[in-house]
Design a protein that fits this description.
The protein is mainly beta. It has a single domain (9-74), classed as heat- and protease-stable fragment of the bacteriophage t4 short fibre, domain 3. 8% of the residues lie in helices and 27% in strands. Strands 1, 2, 5 and 6 form a 4-stranded antiparallel β-sheet that branches. The two termini are 26 Å apart.
């Protein structure tokens, strides 16, 4: 597991999503199941803000060789403290 702040975005060259991360393809998530992530990003990317919220939908990125890179967001990590 990568130690990362909840809500962090990461661009990776592999085609799988590690545990504790989700693909940034705009999908809806249940607030009750992902409360910490929701408390950080809210319904900024869509969702009703009551039962569900959406993850960002990040544009496709290609590396210099034309391979697709994948965006993911951390939902299980270090909760960022606000000062």
């Amino acid at each position: 597991m990568i130690d990362a702040f909840i809500g962090s975005l990461l661009l990776v060259p592999y085609n799988f999503i590690p545990q504790g991360w989700a693909e940034c393809n705009g999908q809806s998530l249940q607030i009750a199941r992902y409360q910490e992530l929701f408390s950080i990003i809210g319904n900024m990317y869509g969702g009703d803000g009551i039962n569900v919220f959406n993850l960002p939908s990040m544009p496709e990125v290609k590396d210099a060789n034309g391979n697709t890179l994948n965006w993911m967001i951390c939902y299980n990590g270090i909760y960022p403290q606000r000062s």
